[in-house]
Amino acid sequence: MATGRHTFARHQQGFTYLGLLMFIIISGIALASTGQVWHAEAQREKERELLFIGEQFRKAIGSYYENTPGGVKHYPLTLQDLLDDKRFVKTRHHLRRIYRDPITRTVQWGLVREQGRITGIHSLSTAKPFKRDGFPREFVDFTNAEEYTDWRFIYTQNAAALSTIAATQPGNVGTPPSGPARPNPSGPSGPVAPAKPGNRFALCGSQLTIANAQCRESCGDLTGPACHACFDAASDARRACLRN
Questions:
Q1: FRET partner for 222 with CA separation of 20 to 30 A, picked from 12, 17, 18, 60?
Q2: Is the pTM of this model over 0.70?
Q3: CA-CA distance, 135 to 127, in Å (whole number)?
């Protein structure tokens, strides 16, 4: 009888071990899947930020070019010229700062030059983008790009026209909001159509990207309670946007 009890106990231990082993395997698979999803979403957020930052550089280059004093227009020689344009009696600032590339996490950018002057910038990352299509009109050339280096933010008259058109459409990543919408003092000109679900999602996502970029600018090293509060507020604003 004692031998039978020992055999039964060993069988129980064996089943317990197999059950624990299966639990560990299933948990590992679930964690790996969750990690992959999180990584993909984090990368997409970086891509949205890259589109926004690249558009800021492109607009700054356009501002420098279009505001050239005299008859012949010129592109900047360096990115520093966008920060401090000393061609005028009073220095002009076309760009607030040299933004950090959200993909490489450095301030080093690839430069697109024409006759020695900068017409555009691009990331130095050779990684393959997650986003392959569905770009706004001003970024349609990025469709099916094999590397982030192929996302080139170049100022041309044609690109400027596309950006102007896209700025009037919901979800444009290159146009940060200047503040909450204010009512028209002259009264509404007609009924306002509600935003379509797809447009609402794009608009709220764009606003989140812009808010996160602003948080990163002000936080620097991304630490401290004020920084965390900034990101929390950005997420809360997106959720509120989706509920409207």
A1: 60
A2: no
A3: 18
Give the C-alpha separation, 119 to 5, whole Å. Answer: 83
Domain layout of the chain by residue ranges: 51-169, 197-244
Please give the structure tokens belonging to residue 198: 């797809």
Place of tokens 């076309």: 94
Largest Cα–Cα separation, the chain? 107
How crowded is residue 4: how many other Cβ atoms within 10 Å of its Cβ?
8
Give the model confidence (pLDDT) of 113-171 as tens digits: 999 999 999 999 999 999 988 998 888 889 999 999 999 999 986 555 445 444 544 54
162 burial level (CB within 10 Å; 0-12, 13-18, 19+): middle
**Could you give the angle at the alpha carbon of 205 between the alpha carbons of 204 and 211, nearest 5°?**
90
**Nearest Cα to Cα of residue 151 among 170, 132, 169:** 132
**Lowest mean pLDDT: which of 51-55, 58-62, 188-192, 230-234?**
188-192
pLDDT in tens, 32-75: 555 555 667 889 999 999 999 999 999 999 999 999 998 889 99
Phi, psi at 178, each rounded to 5°: -90, -5
The pLDDT of residue 37: 59
Distance CA 5, CA 16 (A): 16
Distance CA 100, CA 78 (A): 16
